[in-house]
Records
---
Amino acid sequence: MLTTANFLVVAQWAGILTLVCGAAAVLAFILKWGIRFRLVGITGFMGVLTGGLFALSIVPFTRTAIPGAIRYSLVYDNGATQAVITVPPKITEPELEATMRQAAADLFSYGRLSQNQAQLSIKVRTIIHPESGRSQPLVLGEVKRSLSKRNDTKLDIEINHNNLAKLPQPTA
């Protein structure tokens, strides 16, 4: 993944290329070349591209990494106050809690609609197969976080211990 320092280097090179295109456009107008208007368009596009790359070099990319969290898949997200993720059935309680914290950090966005609610609710589920040909979804827990604060320290984590006990236990 590119970092802000990488984007700054790319923006500098794009800026140099923009100046070269601008000089070529000026030269084309002086010498009345047939492609002079195309060069103006190329220079304008390069200016916009350079500005975007420079903006990406200013804005820091931050991603919170919670130790012990495992990979999850986003199953449902209404873009407002509800989301559902799924985890593998062979998950332990510490991994589940860490994954819930990771999902709460990953799914935060200032653009979510509040719908008169102050919290984002993320349900965690898995699917087990108690017998051949039959699947059973299990809700393992739910985490609620603030819709307005990025670094919400007051996560409301509820783990369903009854459903967690139904999961297949790892063999040694």
Note: The chain has a mean pLDDT of 87.
---
Amino acid sequence: MDLQEVIEESKRLGEWAHVATVSPSGTPYVTPVHPCWEQQILWTMVGANSVKAKNIQTSPLVSCHWQVSAETNFDSLIIWGQAELYTDLETKERLWEGVFDYDLNAFAPGGPAESPDTGFMAIVPSKAVILKGMGMGGRFDWKAK
């Protein structure tokens, strides 16, 4: 399996995933996100001062899980990777149009230039697992080289 197959599976499983981060004290946090791909980087819009953003500053290792549902035959996907927060205007302008499949202005009406509390979390995947039918239909692993 290659990363393109992982990307295609994430799109098939739906627009919502949960991202897990870890606080400086070691407390795990899981929150829903709507991630989108730009080539081989998984992006999600975040509050620049959110728990997610603060957590990845001290512990950049994260995981994303696309939830199991009857609509997707109980298939699931987990991606592990390294996250980094971007709040610079150049990145925000690049991502604002064309990367996300929803209108970012609904969450940050000031657009990229007038939304200082808005950032983007980039996740560079290092490994992934696809479980078909909660694993009973097969397990497919990918790992970065």
Note: The beta strands are 17-22, 28-33, 36-38, 41-47, 61-66, 76-86, 118-132, 138-143.
---
Amino acid sequence: MNLLSRSEEIMLLTILKLKENAYGVSIREQIRIDSGKTWSFASIYQPLDKLTKKDFVRKLKGEPTPERGGKRKYYYEITQEGRNALLEIKKANESFWSGIPEIAGK
């Protein structure tokens, strides 16, 4: 079993949530909304690069825009391999948590 790191798992889940609007800034903002924590851009792009090399995500070039001074955005989409990895880590997490007694407030 090749488990994902927690940051890789968060990236894949965020890309799924954002659908076709998953690019660096929107991913960072969604993580801030979901976690209440602001991640640095290095914390965003490092796992994205790893996931791209593992073929868990695909990096796609957007069109250049005047708002970005003619630069392109790079969008990310999850591959089937990435979906499979998420299902595997979900199953592993459920297994790790099974049998754990209630921990909240007791």
Note: The chain has one domain: 6-95.
---
Amino acid sequence: MASPELDRGEIIARNLGVGCLTTFAGFFSGGMFAVLIAKFVGSMRGCKPVEGLPACNWWVYAGIGAVVGALTLPVLALRRLNRTRPNE
């Protein structure tokens, strides 16, 4: 089943919507994943976090992970969405 052809304006609108949603999702998921890494690194170093905090220096890991996630998830999603398909 072939997909309907989209005009340039529809493609731009679709890419903008997908890019914005995945940037938002990538920001938070990357930050949470990085805090998990911070917990592992902290336990391997023997660091005891302050009561109520997930890990030592968690904000550094969360910030870097959030930026990486906000950049990589939209790039991967848009590359997958816009790749050329062979004609069926």
Note: The first helix runs from residue 8 to 45.
